Amino acid sequence: LKHFRCVSVHCWLLLYVITYALGGGLIFYELEYEASKSHWNEQIDKKNLCIILRKLKNYSDETVKHLEHCWKADIDKTKEWNYITSTLYGFGIITTLGYNHVAPSTVAGRLFSIIYGVLGIPVTMIAIAVSGRHLNTLIASWRRKLETFQVRNWDCEVNLENDKEREKEKNEETSSGYVTIIIIGSFLTYVLFGGLLLPLLNGKIDFINGLYYNFLCLAAIDFGQLIPERIALLPITFVYVCVGLALATIAIG
């Protein structure tokens, strides 16, 4: 019952973080969309002007200056405020990973970022810590089973008490080494799994790039490339990142 309660708390915390991120994304979208739309309209007008200027036969100095900037107005969808990027921006705040592809330009958006982070970061850190503690409990359980198995085998072979003590100390050192290998191996396996999973969320098989961007995310270097194209797949990404951060914390520790 106690184990079930711990798992239940863990699941509820993850569900809260996902809901908080999705709700925050909606608010960020409402606050920033119009300003973003105005910005991109200006970029489109600038590009149209470039096209007109290229059709002119007589180039003045001012025309040449405009032409130098013709191809700097390309629109990058990952840097446009839509619901997905808004949600990823909010998730980047509460996990402290950051999402550097977009940034609020309105006063309301910047103020809300502060409030959103102050309220969301503590709960998210607790959720990640609980996930880490739950994983640590599982690893400790494996360690106890390993120690019990080894002690039983050595009890059959060792007759002297002093030898038993020495073997027990050796057993503890060996099991600690096994646990370290298990933790690091689990983290690397998780990264490999993410390298396959995350590109597949967009219908692609791109293991090398998926592995690279996944490692950057779990190493808390960059979160911006893990972008699912469908809103319904965002929760999968969020759960994967939260569990991965918890596992990375244990591996580093």
TrEMBL record:
GO CC, any one term: plasma membrane
InterPro entries reported for this sequence: 2pore_dom_K_chnl, 2pore_dom_K_chnl_TASK, K_chnl_dom
Annotated transmembrane regions: 12-31, 81-99, 111-132, 178-198, 210-227, 233-252
Localization annotation: Membrane
Source organism superkingdom: Eukaryota
Keyword Cytoplasm included in the entry's annotation: no
GO process terms (BP): stabilization of membrane potential
Residues in Potassium channel domain copies: 77-133
Membrane topology qualifier: Multi-pass membrane protein
An MF annotation (GO) of this entry: potassium ion leak channel activity
The entry's keywords: Ion channel, Ion transport, Membrane, Potassium, Potassium channel, Potassium transport, Transmembrane, Transmembrane helix, Transport
Family statement: Belongs to the two pore domain potassium channel (TC 1.A.1.8) family.
Protein name: Ion_trans_2 domain-containing protein
Organism: Brugia timori
